[in-house]
Amino acid sequence: MSGASIAAWGFAGMLALIAVRMPVGLAMLTAGSVGYISIAGWPAFLNYMKTTPYFLFSNYTLSVIPLFILMGAFAERSGLSRDLFRAASALVGHRRGGMAMAVIGACTAFGAICGSSVATTATFGRAALPELQRYRYEAGLSTGTIAVGGTLGILIPPSVILVIYAISTEQNIEKLFQAALVPGLLAMAFYCLAIAWTVRRNPDLAPPHPREDARERVAALLAVWPVLLVALVVVGGIYGGVFTATEAAAVGAVAMLLVSLLRRLLSWESFKGSLVQTAETTALIFVILLGAEVFNSFLAFSQLPTTVAAAITEAGLAPYLVLTIMLAVYIVLGAVMDELAMILLTLPVFFPIVTALDFGMLPDEVAIWFGILVLIVVGIGLTAPPIGLNVFVIHALARHVPITRTYRGVLPFLATDIVRLALCVAFPALSLGLVRWLN
Amino acid sequence: MSPDTPAPPPPSHDHGAARIARVLALAGGAVVIGLALLVTASILMRWFGGAGIDGDFEMVQIGLALAIFAFLPLCQAHRGNVMVDTFTSRLPAGVQAALDVLWDLVYGAFAAFIAWRLAVGALEAYSSRTTSMVLGLPLQYAIGACAAMALFLALIAGLTALRRARVRG
């Protein structure tokens, strides 16, 4: 059997295992190990596993993942995310659909201190959903907005997905974070437009309510300055070249801990809760990383990625056609697969193809730009039916809202996602402008 | 896909091995906070004094590997690993549970295998005197500790399989 056909069997086997409820990371590990052994042999595999798990996990750059998760956990457990939502709703809550827009605004700010969409969704599911219900916002609009708002956790840098992209393609994390900012803010603007459009078509979805008095508004805004300061230090520090991503994550986690302690917002129990939450979220990411590492080593042995990449590059297709096909593949895969596993498994094949195509830019710039496009499609996969992780997260918090209703609430946002993706494909400057300007 | 957060409420009273997993995860969390403090201190020293802390880079590397291995058992004890629930949700509950028990056992077998290989790796690092670049820290202790935690992960996976099998009886 040739390497390529073993690889094809490996892929099929992995997907079959995932389909029968095997955890995603374990399925990649199992299929990857079997494939590795069948190509390179048992002794090579024994040798490979002797140090790989240790050295994979002792990667300096990967330390940003637990650090950013820890920072987000502190912010959530000490109620700072709720403060963000209050401040945003004090600003725009009285407008029609304003409470939903406040969710988007608060998620954007939270996205600057949290790198995970699941964490952002869970956070605002707890902090904002009861409020939206109190103001009698329609259930699907409420849960849909929070599910979509959660994706801002990764769309706004820092972002776990971008860290993984940077590591697996050996790109500069700081540049990727810079490139993500404008598309991230664009997402925020588009989501607010989607809310405005939805409530204008059907005003009953979001009954208006009177504005709070000025003193309460000022108090709500003043309460969030420490969080905004930490966010500014983290993101500004990375953009200004003061910190590397890891340093920013470390400083951010320490600063967030200090803010929580100084304001006496973090009890001993919530402190331990933050650590446990960090442990679980980090562990599941790293299990997938280990599985992908083994599976991708097997793929590299099979030479499938290089064979496919060479075939597509030699076919002489139009660069934008190839790019469009890849993004379409991501949207389809993202609908049924775990997003992290998806990018880890596809990048060894897709990345060399994309960077070999001629888009009239430097290969480095194409790499950064492609990272942002991948980030956008990952965001789509997180909310799109039939399997959107964020939708499941919000469903677990609000069992009384049928999941189909949440999906209906998500649809207008998904339409803007497609528009934003098209814009970012058509105008690479949206992503690269800031990178060029800062460097 | 069943997400990790919001985690299924942890069993109201973790006991025995699950409690150790929790303590281990908290210790791993403390290590991560320690790394954050170390890096922050190093940056502040660079700003004010000129030189940062020597070898902070490799302490982060070693600490991260230790923390991750410390996190894994709790994630398994709380059944946090991401899985995709597609057509299997329509299977009888007994079949689903049987599959989950099977995958717990496979995971446990992998963890035991990794523990064995890491232990061999630790012994080799010991005999070849592999150390970190700047501080010359011997790596066999870190790798050996990771091997021990992987073995504990295997135990936890076995116990979750056992508990699930019993519940379904």
Question: What is the topological layout?
Answer:
The complex is a heterodimer of chains A (439) and B (169).
Chain A: H1 3-19, H2 24-40, H3 42-57, H4 64-77, H5 80-92, H6 98-111, H7 117-127, H8 129-134, H9 139-155, H10 160-169, H11 173-201, H12 214-222, H13 225-239, H14 245-262, H15 268-302, H16 304-314, H17 319-336, H18 339-356, H19 363-383, H20 389-397, H21 403-426, H22 429-438
Chain B: H1 17-48, H2 56-77, H3 93-127, H4 140-168
How would you concisely characterize the structure shown here?
The complex is a heterodimer of chains A (439) and B (169). Chain A has 439 residues and is mainly α.
What does this protein look like?
The complex is a heterodimer of chains A (439) and B (169). Chain A is mainly alpha-helical and 439 residues long. Chain A has 22 helices and no strands. Chain A has helices spanning 3-19, 24-40, 42-57, 64-77, 80-92, 98-111, 117-127, 129-134, 139-155, 160-169, 173-201, 214-222, 225-239, 245-262, 268-302, 304-314, 319-336, 339-356, 363-383, 389-397, 403-426, 429-438. Chain A starts with a helix and ends with a helix. In chain A, 59% of the residues are buried. Chain B is mainly alpha-helical. Chain B is built from four helices and no strands. The model of chain B is unreliable at 1-13 (pLDDT under 50). At the A-B interface, helix 2, helix 3, helix 4, helix 7 and helix 14 of A face helix 1, helix 2, helix 3 and helix 4 of B.
